[in-house]
Amino acid sequence: MTVIATLQHFPAFYIPAAGVLGLIVGSFLNVVIHRLPIMMERQWHRQCREFLTGASETLPQHPLEEERYDLISPGSRCPHCGHHIRAVENIPVISYLVLRGRCASCKAPISPRYPLIELTAAVLSMVVVWQLGFTPAAGAALVLTWSLLSLSAIDIDHQILPDVITLPLLWVGLLLNLYGLFTDIHTGVIGAVAGYLSLWTVYKAFKWFTGKEGMGYGDFKLLAMLGAWLGWQALPVVILLSSLVGAVVGIALIAIRGQDRNIPIPFGPYLAAAGWLALLWGKDITSYYFSVMGLG
């Protein structure tokens, strides 16, 4: 019996291992969530200056661009005192608890969001392998899960869904379905097209009736990506679940917190959550949906 075949028969091993992996990846996701929007903003500033001057080689360098800034460099450091965070201070969750949520140097508070993202990634990872087993589908689903978590957090913070995450994943979903990993390729292609056009149509209709933009183009691309992975059959359930939860949360924010109705609420996290549910339990949910609608 091969190692993989052995592991497939021992969920008591690979499920906790997925949790540990999720903690490690969650630590990196914190970096992505924090730095990627800043990287995008710097790129936009650079492109604007190039457009306004017409000659990129003569542009004065912006002070923020003097230092390399990406997902690797510079190393993590405290935003308050600049203390470089050592490896022993960057152990997922554990370091936060040992340091009692404060910088080791200046004692400034560290946002509890960092361990929350790590724990969320760990729990979601364990659920994925519990549901899909030690399989290639589970490996691909883990990548999608971590990406959806990053997209959700970025959309909550900045109301953007970076193309650098959604578009590559769309193509990855289609490539995986060439081998029928989640659905067949024809269903995946139709799902990608239908996912984009469905929300684009809603966007255009809402703008025509109200003169306002109800959502962003990132939402279209996110649903197209989910359609590429899951197929067109999952789209009605994804749209229904995300719209229902989004409406409930939006009404709750207005009623409880008195949030201004004109302040936009990001739709990406609801799409991501609904897509993740459809990824793991999509066939059951879709069958139930079609039976309720009298279509099954």
- Count of helical stretches: 10
Beta-strand proportion: under 5%
Shape: globular
SSE string: HHHHHHHHHH
Poorly predicted runs: none
Structural class, by secondary structure, is: mainly alpha
User: How many β strands by DSSP?
Assistant: 0
**What is the C-alpha radius of gyration, as a whole number of Å?**
21 Å
Largest sheet: none
Helix content: 55-70%
Mean pLDDT: 86
Distance between the termini: 41 Å
Key features of this structure:
296 residues; mainly alpha; 10 helices; 67% helix; globular
List the helices and strands and how they pair.
Layout (H helix, E strand, L loop, with lengths): L2 H6 L2 H43 L40 H5 L14 H20 L3 H23 L4 H15 L7 H26 L6 H14 L4 H22 L11 H25 L4
Task: Describe this structure as you would to a colleague.
- The protein is mainly α and 296 residues long.
- 67% of the residues lie in helices and 0% in strands.
- The protein is globular, with a radius of gyration of 21 Å.
Brief characterization of the structure:
With 296 residues, the protein is an all-alpha fold.
